Amino acid sequence: MAEPLSSARQAYLRRLGREKRRVTLAQILLLLGFFALWELAARAGWIDSFLLSSPSRIWETLAGLWSSGDLWLHLGTSCWETVAGFMLGTAVGAVIAVLLWLCPGLYRVVEPYLVVLSALPKTALGPVFIVWIGAGPASIIAMTLAISLIVTILEVHNGFLATDPGKLRLMRTMGASRSQILWKLVLPANFGTFINALKVNVGLSWVGVIMGEFLVSRAGLGYLIVYGSQVFQMDLVMASVLLLAVVAAVMYQGIRLLERSVHHHREGST
In Å, how far are 19, 224, 253, 259, 261 from 24, measured between CA atoms? Predict the structure, then answer.
């Protein structure tokens, strides 16, 4: 049976709760204030609503997309491409990082190539993927994978290298093999590294998908942005950008929920 919290601890938790609610309220008010100021500026003529649109015009555009059924087509296309690239980039990158940690000699060989590939602008590979794979979702997913893969490898592997050297020496002294050290120490100690990699890959995956849809797509948020800019429908462009921001934020919050869930589970098992 858990011991009851002291009055000081309860007061501290209540203070943390109030602070969290104040921050959340301030964030909501800041967002609402931004949209209100944007709408006021458009109606008062302070900005050109044809070029910068306005919240009310964006809402009308989204309602039109909803009524025509195009909203779910474009949103769903971009989301599944992003999720596919996100999962592939994270999983393959983590596996390669594990292999490189298990084979330090191999890492020393490929390290300069990884650094060069990390610095290479991945958008330059877009036309190459189109020629190799074809003009379709597969080339867009390949573009997303190219952007997130190398970053995942380097970030996860650097986290492995930063594992507490004292604990590593202790396990080696006790006769643990490199694979045992990996499973018993390195992987559990780098839970935060994996979560950070997931958070970074959310943004990178969306960058890859949107850039891929800019180059070759017939549906998706990137397609709407390109189409809207070509026909000077800035309401459509801004609505697509707003949708992109919302779904990216939802994915990021999903990663944070996963982090809290695993953290609570680990605390409960100790």
Answer: 9, 32, 14, 19, 21
Q: List, for residues 3-54, the tens digit of each pLDDT value.
A: 566 677 677 777 877 888 888 899 899 999 999 999 999 888 888 888 888 8
Write the DSSP assignment of the chain as a string of letters. Answer: -PPPPPHHHHHHHHHHHHHHHHHHHHHHHHHHHHHHHHHHHHHHTSS-HHHH--HHHHHHHHHHHHHHTHHHHHHHHHHHHHHHHHHHHHHHHHHHHHHHHH-HHHHHHHHHHHHHHHHS-GGGGHHHHHHHH-SSHHHHHHHHHHHHHHHHHHHHHHHHHTS-HHHHHHHHHTT--HHHHIIIIIHHHTHHHHHHHHHHHHHHHHHHHHHHHHHS-SSSHHHHHHHHHHTT-HHHHHHHHHHHHHHHHHHHHHHHHHHHHHHHHHHHH-
